[in-house]
Amino acid sequence: MKKWTHSMHRGRVATAGDVDVPGKMKTRIPVVLLACGSFNPITNMHLRLFEVARDHLHQTGLYQVMEGIISPVNDNYRKKDLVSSHHRVAMARLALQSSDWIRVDSWESEQAQWMETVNVLRHHQSQLLRYGTQMEGLDSAAPELKLLCGADVLKTFQTPNLWKDSHIQEIVEKFGLVCVNRAGHDPKGYILGSPILCKYQHNIHLAREPVLNEISATYVRRALAQGQSVKYLLPDAVIAYIKDHGLYMTDSSQKARSTQKNKGKTS
Amino acid sequence: MGTANPNESRLTEGSAPRGRVATAGDVDVPGKMKTRIPVVLLACGSFNPITNMHLRLFEVARDHLHQTGLYQVMEGIISPVNDNYRKKDLVSSHHRVAMARLALQSSDWIRVDSWESEQAQWMETVNVLRHHQSQLLRYGTQMEGLDSAAPELKLLCGADVLKTFQTPNLWKDSHIQEIVEKFGLVCVNRAGHDPKGYILGSPILCKYQHNIHLAREPVLNEISATYVRRALAQGQSVKYLLPDAVIAYIKDHGLYMTDSSQKARSTQKNKGKTS
């Protein structure tokens, strides 16, 4: 415990605003946030998820967010218009240049197969137990790894045959969920409507973004294909990358909406 | 060239490929030259502080006008309001101008103009338009100078501002008329607004609706500066809602550390000012 609080003052601990540490040391639970998704491409809204989630957890007074991880999905997920993962990883890396606590991780995208979210969580959890975070190393108590997502993903837990029940349970019981609300969603309602979610609702954190910031990557791809500006919706470095590599020049979103099995993947 | 007006031919021939003309995506110039009307967009407001949403207004408006095939947007101007406007929590104009300048570092077509903020008094929107119109007639845009046809200056705003035209005693009728008749309006829709309805409900707006361009931002991007100020005062992150350089400026100068927005909503006379 003492070692962990010492690390709070070490160089690059992620603090949002003012985290009060009065004379009598508060021990907060260290947390790492993991977001899985297409990130096709990454947008300012994806990045906001992390900021909002971190602020929310800090304001409970119970948690200290040590790190954020973006894990772009494997190419074998075969979602329409999914550009190669090496591009999606590169774009996320560019987007995160100005962040001192969020990083991109390419492990999921480098596997031979697509894998379910719970497997990605298990992998990162074991990495954290072995090596600690990239910021703090092993000098601190092992952080709790939580899945970060929008309310739309929480809703997908209801879709029949999309998630294994055992996976949903493992996610909310062993890991925990931080869910950032989106326009048109009712996360409390989704929880109440599910016995598993109800049972572990103490492990589901609902964060609110008061700013309506619905920058859909689908819209961004369409705008790019139509030659419209996406400036100020994504970081400039990502836009430059997209132009340099000729990405998203065509777009199939005008076709009938495909049935997407998006197991916990943010678009 | 086929066009009698040398200015027009210069515009289509010379200006499109010249270094820093504002183009959005691909503006087609086929073998037979198209003559587009040059336009400058002016946004008045508090910009307290400037946010990504303000910046998006320009991008969406420009794309919209280009897609009509009729216009070529040459320049965008952000004109932060005078301190004497006395809106709650309005930080000094030299900060608001500085933040806008930082935000626009990465833009090759939008600039900030401090003339309005430097005047001794607050002034009505139509006066700011008149000023910039006369500057354009004299000097052209900062990009093209006087080598092109004089651009049309249009007021850029969100649909919420269009709605304020209905508020009794907020705008002079003669000013509304001048804005839509002599200048023109480019209005970017916002969630919860019905700009077509606002136009239909007003005889003046109806009459000049050909001069009111309604642009749509399909992305819900309601980054309210009011929310940003509150978040800053509460120590919450505003990263990715405003440019990093603006956030750094705010921290360096200790701006927005307190916030009065929790008090009862004040009656704001916001004559055409975007918040």
TrEMBL record, chain A:
<keyword id="KW-0520">NAD</keyword>
<dbReference type="GO" id="GO:0000309">
    <property type="term" value="F:nicotinamide-nucleotide adenylyltransferase activity"/>
</dbReference>
<comment type="function">
    <text>Catalyzes the formation of NAD(+) from nicotinamide mononucleotide (NMN) and ATP. Can also use the deamidated form; nicotinic acid mononucleotide (NaMN) as substrate with the same efficiency. Can use triazofurin monophosphate (TrMP) as substrate. Can also use GTP and ITP as nucleotide donors. Also catalyzes the reverse reaction, i.e. the pyrophosphorolytic cleavage of NAD(+). For the pyrophosphorolytic activity, can use NAD(+), NADH, NaAD, nicotinic acid adenine dinucleotide phosphate (NHD), nicotinamide guanine dinucleotide (NGD) as substrates.</text>
</comment>
<dbReference type="Pfam" id="PF01467">
    <property type="entry name" value="CTP_transf_like"/>
</dbReference>
<protein>
    <recommendedName>
        <fullName>Nicotinamide-nucleotide adenylyltransferase</fullName>
        <ecNumber>2.7.7.1</ecNumber>
        <ecNumber>2.7.7.18</ecNumber>
    </recommendedName>
</protein>
<comment type="subunit">
    <text>Homotetramer.</text>
</comment>
<feature type="domain" description="Cytidyltransferase-like">
    <location>
        <begin position="34"/>
        <end position="222"/>
    </location>
</feature>
<keyword id="KW-0067">ATP-binding</keyword>
<comment type="similarity">
    <text>Belongs to the eukaryotic NMN adenylyltransferase family.</text>
</comment>
<dbReference type="GO" id="GO:0009435">
    <property type="term" value="P:NAD+ biosynthetic process"/>
</dbReference>
<dbReference type="InterPro" id="IPR005248">
    <property type="entry name" value="NadD/NMNAT"/>
</dbReference>
<dbReference type="InterPro" id="IPR004821">
    <property type="entry name" value="Cyt_trans-like"/>
</dbReference>
<comment type="pathway">
    <text>Cofactor biosynthesis; NAD(+) biosynthesis; NAD(+) from nicotinamide D-ribonucleotide: step 1/1.</text>
</comment>
<keyword id="KW-0547">Nucleotide-binding</keyword>
<dbReference type="InterPro" id="IPR045094">
    <property type="entry name" value="NMNAT_euk"/>
</dbReference>
<keyword id="KW-0548">Nucleotidyltransferase</keyword>
<dbReference type="GO" id="GO:0004515">
    <property type="term" value="F:nicotinate-nucleotide adenylyltransferase activity"/>
</dbReference>
<keyword id="KW-0808">Transferase</keyword>
<keyword id="KW-0662">Pyridine nucleotide biosynthesis</keyword>
<keyword id="KW-0496">Mitochondrion</keyword>
<comment type="pathway">
    <text>Cofactor biosynthesis; NAD(+) biosynthesis; deamido-NAD(+) from nicotinate D-ribonucleotide: step 1/1.</text>
</comment>
<dbReference type="InterPro" id="IPR051182">
    <property type="entry name" value="Euk_NMN_adenylyltrnsfrase"/>
</dbReference>
TrEMBL record, chain B:
<keyword id="KW-0547">Nucleotide-binding</keyword>
<dbReference type="GO" id="GO:0005524">
    <property type="term" value="F:ATP binding"/>
</dbReference>
<dbReference type="Pfam" id="PF01467">
    <property type="entry name" value="CTP_transf_like"/>
</dbReference>
<dbReference type="InterPro" id="IPR005248">
    <property type="entry name" value="NadD/NMNAT"/>
</dbReference>
<comment type="pathway">
    <text>Cofactor biosynthesis; NAD(+) biosynthesis; deamido-NAD(+) from nicotinate D-ribonucleotide: step 1/1.</text>
</comment>
<dbReference type="GO" id="GO:0009435">
    <property type="term" value="P:NAD+ biosynthetic process"/>
</dbReference>
<dbReference type="InterPro" id="IPR045094">
    <property type="entry name" value="NMNAT_euk"/>
</dbReference>
<keyword id="KW-0808">Transferase</keyword>
<feature type="domain" description="Cytidyltransferase-like">
    <location>
        <begin position="42"/>
        <end position="230"/>
    </location>
</feature>
<comment type="subunit">
    <text>Homotetramer.</text>
</comment>
<comment type="similarity">
    <text>Belongs to the eukaryotic NMN adenylyltransferase family.</text>
</comment>
<keyword id="KW-0548">Nucleotidyltransferase</keyword>
<comment type="pathway">
    <text>Cofactor biosynthesis; NAD(+) biosynthesis; NAD(+) from nicotinamide D-ribonucleotide: step 1/1.</text>
</comment>
<comment type="function">
    <text>Catalyzes the formation of NAD(+) from nicotinamide mononucleotide (NMN) and ATP. Can also use the deamidated form; nicotinic acid mononucleotide (NaMN) as substrate with the same efficiency. Can use triazofurin monophosphate (TrMP) as substrate. Can also use GTP and ITP as nucleotide donors. Also catalyzes the reverse reaction, i.e. the pyrophosphorolytic cleavage of NAD(+). For the pyrophosphorolytic activity, can use NAD(+), NADH, NaAD, nicotinic acid adenine dinucleotide phosphate (NHD), nicotinamide guanine dinucleotide (NGD) as substrates.</text>
</comment>
<protein>
    <recommendedName>
        <fullName>Nicotinamide-nucleotide adenylyltransferase</fullName>
        <ecNumber>2.7.7.1</ecNumber>
        <ecNumber>2.7.7.18</ecNumber>
    </recommendedName>
</protein>
<dbReference type="InterPro" id="IPR004821">
    <property type="entry name" value="Cyt_trans-like"/>
</dbReference>
<keyword id="KW-0067">ATP-binding</keyword>
<feature type="region of interest" description="Disordered">
    <location>
        <begin position="1"/>
        <end position="26"/>
    </location>
</feature>
<dbReference type="GO" id="GO:0005759">
    <property type="term" value="C:mitochondrial matrix"/>
</dbReference>
<dbReference type="InterPro" id="IPR014729">
    <property type="entry name" value="Rossmann-like_a/b/a_fold"/>
</dbReference>
<keyword id="KW-0662">Pyridine nucleotide biosynthesis</keyword>
<dbReference type="GO" id="GO:0000309">
    <property type="term" value="F:nicotinamide-nucleotide adenylyltransferase activity"/>
</dbReference>
